[in-house]
């Protein structure tokens, strides 16, 4: 099985993790499984939106690999054992958390192990969803050179839309093969302001970045996050869920 790779991108605070959680819900309900969700943000919190506990991360495995190996076990065998322990197994999807980098701004070793992990695990899944940190360089370091769906998430601001355009434009210089890219505008006001609508239309018109969807601000999502309740438990009648599912239906048609 060759999995489809879905990657999230966008500046910090735009709602990439929220969109990832909604997308996992969508893929599960549409029976587009099994899924491997990778939380590749150093400020990992996708597990919190799914109401899951994380016991081990790729960063912690890296630290373990610096120590002595158990007797009779190679480094690769030890790494594979640890990776299996780090995978959080749920019905229809698994979650793997990258964790903290080696040092300030450095993910060198952790990325190396994550790339090796992806190679080991990829064939087990129909979709791999990467909740990425801000920017795009992280994806290239993870050896995710071929991306089937790149969802660039923006908040409802001129700066966010501009950043989304810039991200869309740097995929080629980074050597990333992106088959499909889409702009998702998150937490949009209702009704949407003419200024925001104009910025979105400008971004879509002047860059190779079609509009995937505009998700409204949602009190239901705020409630789920405050109470620590999984987004997977949101009802299908919740407005942001209905909007997101309609957008995903078009993107993954």
Automatic annotation (TrEMBL):
Protein species of origin: Candidatus Desulfobia pelagia
Entry-linked Gene3D superfamilies: P-loop containing nucleotide triphosphate hydrolases
PANTHER family xref list: SEPTUM SITE-DETERMINING PROTEIN MIND HOMOLOG, CHLOROPLASTIC (PTHR43384:SF6), SEPTUM SITE-DETERMINING PROTEIN MIND HOMOLOG, CHLOROPLASTIC-RELATED (PTHR43384)
GO biological process, one term: negative regulation of cell division
One Pfam match: AAA_31
High-level lineage: Bacteria, Pseudomonadati, Thermodesulfobacteriota, Desulfobulbia, Desulfobulbales
GO molecular function, one term: ATP binding
Name of the molecule in the record: AAA family ATPase
Listed GO CC annotations: cytoplasmic side of plasma membrane; cytosol
AAA domain: residues covered: 4-164
Entry keywords, A to Z: ATP-binding, Nucleotide-binding
InterPro entries noted in UniProt: AAA_dom, CooC, P-loop_NTPase, ParA/MinD_ATPase
């Amino acid at each position: 099985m060759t999995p489809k790779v879905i990657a999230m991108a966008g500046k910090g605070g735009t709602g990439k993790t929220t969109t990832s959680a909604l997308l996992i819900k969508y893929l599960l309900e549409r029976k587009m499984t099994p899924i491997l969700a990778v939380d590749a943000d150093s400020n990992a919190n996708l597990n919190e939106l799914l109401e899951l506990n994380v016991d081990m991360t790729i960063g912690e495995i890296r630290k373990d690999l610096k120590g002595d190996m158990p007797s009779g076990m190679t480094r690769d065998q030890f790494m594979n054992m640890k990776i299996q322990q780090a995978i959080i197994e749920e019905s229809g999807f698994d979650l793997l958390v990258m964790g903290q980098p080696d040092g300030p701004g450095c993910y060198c070793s952790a990325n190396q192990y994550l790339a090796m992990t992806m190679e080991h695990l990829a064939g087990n899944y129909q979709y791999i969803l990467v909740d990425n940190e801000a920017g795009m360089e992280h994806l290239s370091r993870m050896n995710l050179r071929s991306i089937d769906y790149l969802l660039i998430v923006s908040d409802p601001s001129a700066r966010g839309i501009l950043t989304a355009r810039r991200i869309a434009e740097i995929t080629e210089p980074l050597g990333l093969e992106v088959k499909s890219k889409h702009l998702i505008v998150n937490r949009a006001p209702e009704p949407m302001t003419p200024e925001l609508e104009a910025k979105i239309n400008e971004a879509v018109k002047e860059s190779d970045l079609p509009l995937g969807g505009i998700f409204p601000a949602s009190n239901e999502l705020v409630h789920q996050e405050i109470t620590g309740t999984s987004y997977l438990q949101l009802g299908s009648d919740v407005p942001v869920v209905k909007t997101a599912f309609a957008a995903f239906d078009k993107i993954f048609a």
